[in-house]
Amino acid sequence: MLCVHSSRLCAPAAPHGAAMRLLWITLSLALLAPCRPRAPTSRCEPGCDCRGELRVTVCSGAMFTRIPARLPPTTELLDLSRNLISHIPEDALSHNRKLRVLLLQRNNISAVEDAAFAHMEFLQKLDLSWNRIRWLSQGFSFGLTLLRELQLSHNFLTILDSRSFAHLDGLQKLNLTGNFIHVIRVRAFASMSLLRQLHLAGNQMTRLQSGTFSMLRSLEVLNLERNHLSDMDVGLFKPLTSMTLLNLARNQMSKVHFKTFVGIHTYSTHILLEGNPWHCDCDLQRVFRKLRSVQRLFLDDYHNLSCHDPPVLKGYQLMHVDTELCIAETVTVLIISITVLITVLAAMLMGERKRKKKKKAKHWTQQGDMSEESDY
Ligand SMILES: *[C@@H]1O[C@H](CO)[C@@H](O)[C@H](O)[C@H]1NC(C)=O
Ligand SMILES: *[C@@H]1O[C@H](CO)[C@@H](O)[C@H](O)[C@H]1NC(C)=O
Ligand SMILES: *[C@@H]1O[C@H](CO)[C@@H](O)[C@H](O)[C@H]1NC(C)=O
């Protein structure tokens, strides 16, 4: 009823004169108030740029310190990157249920409350990279069942809990590059049977428990570059039956077990191993020779692997010394064999000589006896 009046009041331009203007504002406010809910939210927040019939809202670099309250509810893509937002409250953006893409990278976010994204049931991509997030609460992923891509690179995460990602059933890409992760609980990725890319490069992992990847049967890319991994559990990669790329470059591996990689049952998998401190010996050479003969495995950067140990081989490329690594061993075996042979021969010779000596001695004594006899 009031709206009928207000539509007439809204139309003319504000009248001149301070008193009249005040009256106009008061009247407008009084009359418009009940009809307002739609008007302000369908406008663009100052500092933002709204496009595409208000489906795209770009508020990048607008110095926001919190998530703005009034954004067009029709927004499907919201770009809030490069602001100073430090906190994502529970039910953030609860009026923006149509969001498909939410970009929050390069803010100052340290806290994400439980169920912060619970209403974003259509959200497909969430970018939280380059923030200051230290941990993810158990309710972090609540409601994000359609999310396909989660960017969390360059935060301060240290531990991945078993429940933080529990609701991400549809996730296909998870980027955790450049955090400080040193512990991954065994069930952390348990909900992600559709995950295709897992990026864990540039973290602090020293060990991965077998079972960590046990549910990731769709995983194609596993990037573990630039961690501190030294030894892999033999069954660790076995469940990854779709893996096409395994990046283990720049870790702390000095040796490998043949079984660790031969247990990967895929049609073809490329494995990157460059930048590890290899201990070059005959064992390593044997393992690599066997691995390279496995048809479905491709050691793409084999030509770039270099020795770290023993000191005489430091800096040499494995490829250039690999034929010699076992030669040394062969030579050792040969030397030992020859030594044994010589010893045996010598022993036999000595034996023979002794026998001959004895014979001679006997002969002489016999001769002596005879001569003694003949003397008389
Ligand atoms: C970022 O947030 C921290 C608190 O978490 C605050 O101390 C700091 O001043 C913020 N930095 C900026 C640039 O707003
Ligand atoms: C993961 O994050 C890093 C750092 O932000 C970025 O360079 C890289 O392109 C991302 N990878 C993918 C596949 O999204
Ligand atoms: C591999 O080694 C070649 C030279 O031997 C170098 O040019 C190339 O950049 C190296 N590749 C990587 C990935 O380090």
From TrEMBL:
Residues 357-376 are annotated as: Disordered. It is found in: Membrane. Keywords: Glycoprotein, Leucine-rich repeat, Membrane, Repeat, Signal, Transmembrane, Transmembrane helix. It holds the Pfam family LRR_8. The chain crosses the membrane at residues 331-350. GO terms for cellular component: plasma membrane. GO terms for biological process: inflammatory response; toll-like receptor signaling pathway. Residues 1-37 form the signal peptide. Coiled coil: none annotated. It is a single-pass membrane protein. GO terms for molecular function: signaling receptor activity. The keyword GTP-binding does not apply. Gene3D superfamilies: Ribonuclease Inhibitor. InterPro entries: Leu-rich_rpt, Leu-rich_rpt_typical-subtyp, LRR_dom_sf. SMART domains: LRR_TYP. It comes from the Eukaryota. PANTHER family: LOW QUALITY PROTEIN: TOLL-LIKE RECEPTOR 13-RELATED (PTHR24365:SF522), TOLL-LIKE RECEPTOR (PTHR24365). This is LRRCT domain-containing protein. It comes from Knipowitschia caucasica.
